[in-house]
Amino acid sequence: MLVTRFAPSPTGYLHLGSAYAALFAHDVARAQNGRFLLRIEDIDATRCRAQFDAAICDDLRWLGLDWDGPVWRQSERLATYHAAIRRLDELGLVYPCFCSRKDIAREVAQSLSAPHGPDGPLYPGTCRSLPRAQTTARMGREPYALRLDVQQAVARMGTLEFDEHGRGPLGEHGRITAEPARLGDIVLASRDRAASYHLAVVVDDAAQSVSLVTRACDLFASAHVQRLLQALLDLPVPAYSHHDLVLDPEGRKFSKRDHAATLRDLRRQGYAPDEIRQRLRLRASGGLARLGLGT
Ligand code: GLU
Questions:
Q1: 102 counts as catalytic
Q2: Is pTM beyond 0.85 here?
Q3: End-to-end distance of the chain based on CA atoms, in angstroms?
Q4: Contact at 8 Å (CB) between 244 and 166?
Q5: Cβ density class 105-143: b for 16+ within 10 Å, e for less
Q6: Residue nearest to atom 2 of ligand 1 (CA)
Q7: Would you say the CB of residue 8 lies under 6 angstroms from ligand 1?
Q8: Residue of the CA atom closest to atom 4 of ligand 1
Q9: 1-76+244-295: what CATH class?
Q10: Are 16 and 265 in contact (CB under 8 A)?
């Protein structure tokens, strides 16, 4: 059975960009008598708010989207994520990183050929080869993040592939060879986040039997390293369907700061949910999305 999910982080009200992602996942599931799940990705306690969690559920209902089964919340699943990180550690693929953001920026600035990912420079691997004796002592007294040694992990797992039913940002489609190093040595856990986005998503998609991951194409690079995590953790591999980003009338990504484009605000302005659904769906068949709502 086809299972999709919508997995928002409750850091603000739902805007049109996330409403589109929800509608997309919903419609694909409903068209094939599948299941549509709602998962609240609320691990980052510094940014997530219960108020937005409740508002997201409420706004989705208002939009007319019904999900199957109970809502999952990642904050309730930390023990499962820790077990997954332990397993990666037992494979010898995890190392502590003591670098602050500033340290990383400095290191990147000093390096002549810092590797770059889709969102800028990647972590340059500063702490990857620190001796164990040294890291153990430092872990007792300094904050640190746990990172995945991606190169070693790739060497262990060999070539991996995934199926893309939608499109990546460069039109990538079909059987894709994963390039897990695209995002560098990803963080698995840090002081602020008991489990990183990549780790938690992979564990939960498997636990919820998600068979098709649908989301905006700005997360396409994530699929590459998530494929690696699936292989390392021996998890089933979903198919992917990345879709266009919904852009504001100026052609920019909606952000949580665009109050005019939140479902809350559109509702207040008197838009009917049918109308919003219809306009979002029209964009779904019309390629790159620009919506003339709420501006
Ligand atoms: N929680 C992620 C976000 O809000 C969604 C990630 C995903 O769909 O894999 O961007």
A1: no
A2: yes
A3: 40
A4: no
A5: eebbeeeeebeeeeeebbbbbbbeeeeeeebeeeeeeee
A6: 8
A7: yes
A8: 8
A9: alpha beta
A10: no
Which atom of ligand 1 is nearest the CA belonging to 226?
9
> CATH 3.90.800.10 spans which residues of the chain?
77-208
C-alpha of residue 249 to centroid of ligand 1, in Å: 23
Architecture of the domain delimited by 77-208: Alpha-Beta Complex (3.90)
CA 94 to centroid of ligand 1, rounded, Å: 23
3-state secondary structure of 152: helix
pLDDT in tens, 102-152: 999 999 888 877 788 888 889 999 999 999 999 999 999 999 999 999 999
**Beta bridge pairs of residue 137:** none
* pLDDT tens by residue, 64-80: 999 999 999 999 999 99
- For residue 32, the tally of other CB atoms under 10 A from its CB is 12
* Residue range 150-207, pLDDT digits in tens: 999 999 999 999 999 999 999 999 999 999 999 999 999 999 899 999 999 999 999 9
| pLDDT over threshold 60, residue 295 | no
Residues of the chain with CATH 3.40.50.620: 1-76+244-295
Q: Is the pLDDT of residue 52 over 70?
A: yes
Q: Which of 138, 165, 256, 281 is catalytic?
A: 256
